[in-house]
Amino acid sequence: MSALRIVRLANFVAPASGGLRTALRELGRGYRAAGHEPVLVVPGRYADDRETGQGRVITLPGPLLPGTGGYRVLTDRRRVAALLEDLGPDRLEVSDRTTLRWTGRWARRARVPAVMVSHETTDGVLRTWGLPEGAARRTADALNVRTAHTYARVVCTTEFAEREFVRIGARNVVRAPLGVDLAGRHPALRDPGLRDRYASLDETLLVMCSRLSVEKRPGTALDALAALRGRGGRAVLVVAGDGPLRPRLEQRARERGLPVTFLGHVRDAGLLGALQASADVCLAPGPAETFGLAALEAMACGTPVVVSASSALPEVIGSAGAVAADHGDAFADAVELLLDRREAHRREAARARAECFGWDAAVRGFLAAHDATLPSRPVLPGPGPGPEPTREPEGVS
């Protein structure tokens, strides 16, 4: 097979977003390493077009989505369609099941095989925004029927994510896991000095790496901290992440006298890894997660994670972490359960579980969804992972 030009479209990628941006970057690098030609199209404040370590990245101007804390969207259909015509993709990969679903019809007309990547469960997100369960399910089913019909394939990263498509009888769903950088995230990143900055020797250091938005339910972490301290436990919480709920969460922490440090978005990957590795337990309270890259990164650093029982993360963490119902007391119970385990054992188990999820396997799974094999002709290499231009494309790195 010749090298394929795989054009990828994504919305809701903000400069301070984490999981989706990481997945796009690592898959792009993997596609390039396999000899294909990835092109990523994302929204931003300004137009841009450059070669990066993950391939060509094109930024089109897109308006801010109110109330989301920085998310932008590609709203100019004519401009996007014209760009697609100009790029002439061999494959199309779309990471937005709402505002970009129309591109599936474009791909059908252009006879371009297209896949939609399910990065979240539709009914799960709708429930976190307050829609009753029955209405959320009916709305999700209607949207998913149209998605499954429009695209050649739907890629789900876990069995959990796949269930809502199985429920509607979709037969074009394939499974491909995401991964974790096992070299960049490692227990050796543990930094006693960094830990001392936030917690004393007799305190439990909890860390949450999450976007601070409604669907992530970050308030559960504060409730868990309050529950632990109410039981006499000495615990502190560090929050790495930003989003529209941050002012409200900071106010709640002040009013309740909770020892919470809000770092905002941590751009330095080494610092973030050291923070995850230095924590005693990490928290992942998002109930609509279909994979949970931040949780997997923490486990790669040797730190166990407490995850929402409503999400896909119990499937990802296995027995190396703990599962809790979506309220603070349950998360506090799970933290205590993990701390009762011998430290060396719980840290070894976390790292061993993370080693089941390398990016190589993820890339192979996504390329299989595209019916893409190693090409018979090489693609000229673009820039490696060295220094990037001073002004980065928004939402990618």
Number of self-contained structural domains: 2
* CATH architecture annotation of the largest domain: 3-Layer(aba) Sandwich
Q: What share of the residues lie within helices? A: 25-40%
Radius of gyration: 21 Å
Report on this structure.
The chain contains 15 helices and 14 strands. It folds into 2 domains: 5-179 and 358-369, Glycogen Phosphorylase B (Rossmann fold); 187-354, 3-Layer(aba) Sandwich (Rossmann fold). The strands form 2 sheets. Strands 3-4-2-1-5-6-7-8 form an 8-stranded mixed β-sheet, with helices on both faces. A 6-stranded parallel β-sheet has the order 11-10-9-12-13-14, with helices on both faces. The chain is globular and about 65 Å long. The chain is α/β, with parallel strands linked by helices and 397 residues long. It has helices at 19-33, 77-87, 103-110, 122-128, 133-150, 159-166, 192-198, 219-230, 246-256, 269-278, 293-300, 313-317, 328-339, 343-354, 359-369; strands at 5-10, 37-44, 48-52, 55-61, 91-95, 114-118, 153-156, 173-175, 204-209, 235-240, 260-264, 281-284, 305-308, 322-324.
